[in-house]
Amino acid sequence: MADRTRAHVFVSGTVQGVYYRANTRDTAQGKGLDGWVQNLSDGRVEAVFEGPESEVEEMVEWCHTGSPAADVDDVTVTYASPEGEDGFRIRR
What family is it from (predicted)? Predict the structure, then answer.
């Protein structure tokens, strides 16, 4: 499917311990996206979203706000070709 894309996202700010991963998973699943989200040891959250370009773009935009308790400082995103993620999960 040529309209599929992959976004690799790093989110910094107050994004751990505020249900950011769970909200990311639920939102991505609601959009039918594949990929994963995880906390990093430096306090950031890392995520990969694969799916239709428009939904991936919406998800990247969503990351700027994230969960209600989050305070996002920065979102860095790199686009690439999909690698065949299947389903959306929280990595631990």
Answer: Belongs to the acylphosphatase family.
Catalytic residue among 4, 6, 23, 39: 39
Residue 71 pLDDT more than 60? yes
For residue 1, is pLDDT > 90? no
Tokens of 23: 């909200």
Domain regions of the chain by residue span: 4-83
pTM over 0.90: yes
Buried b / exposed e over 4-43, threshold 16 CB at 10 Å, is bbbbbbbbebebeebbbbebbbebbeebebbbbbebeeee
Second-level CATH architecture of 4-83: 2-Layer Sandwich (3.30)
Catalytic residue among 6, 21, 25, 44: 21
The encoded tokens of residue 18 equal 């505020």
